[in-house]
Design goal:
Layout lengths: L2 H4 L14 H10 L1 H15 L5 H18 L6 H37 L1
Helix pairs in contact: 3-4, 4-5
Length: 113
């Protein structure tokens, strides 16, 4: 099997999936979804929108799933770097959400007094 034949094949279905050129184009468009999620999450964060964390979390989870699914056809060092980036996004977003929840009871108590 040549390198070009393997580029859009998922390791999970390595023997059963063989994409045409149109199929490879669709797979390429699917990779835009996590990118769009990260861009929207960053924009939402800087614009102080409430939904930014959901967009960033969804993008990181989708990106990680796609990387793992297509592991065999990706450059290993790029895939590892992308997974580390996704892990950092997940940790930062979840940590920030936790800190925000810890501050909310204090703010409510202050408003009552």
């Amino acid at each position: 099997m040549g390198l070009l034949e393997n580029r859009a094949r998922a390791w999970l279905f390595a023997d059963s999936l063989k994409f045409s050129q149109a199929g490879e184009g669709i797979i390429g468009v699917l990779w835009l979804a996590p990118l769009l999620g990260f861009v929207l999450g960053a924009w939402g964060y800087f614009a102080q929108q409430t939904w930014w964390a959901s967009a960033a979390l969804a993008a990181a989870i989708l990106s990680s799933a796609m990387i793992l699914l297509w592991w065999g056809s990706l450059n290993t060092s790029s895939a590892i770097f992308a997974l580390l980036f996704n892990l950092v996004v997940l940790v930062v977003v979840l940590w920030q959400q936790r800190m925000r929840r810890r501050q909310q009871p204090h703010e409510i108590r202050r408003k009552i007094r």
